[in-house]
Amino acid sequence: MLAFHERRKRRSEVLQEALTLQLDACARRSGVDYMVLADQQGLIIARSRDVCEAEEVAAFGPFLADRRPWSGRVPCESGPRDASIAPFRLGGQSVYLCAVGTQSKRVGGEMIQAQCGVRRILGQ
Question: How is the beta sheet containing 70-74 ordered, strand by strand?
Fold first, then answer.
């Protein structure tokens, strides 16, 4: 019999907490400050950290990355922030994954991992 090794260290059966843990793990591995998942109206679905500016970044997601990924500086009340925003389809709707903070080469891969994790958690 083969032994199964679970690579995830923190997990939850609670949907919102599971999404937060997924985004937090990807944000930490990529080196960004936080990740936020927004809906088509720019409202937060989930975020890796509870930061006030996450709402501002989420609101820009649908406008900056309407049909393709976007990278640049997002205007926030606390000052412009480096961000990458990637749109993807989830349950027939567009959603926007935002990675905020210093961008590294690992961000793109971790955003793909976050998208896969979100789909897995939500059963999509």
Answer: 44-47, 34-38, 93-100, 81-90, 70-74
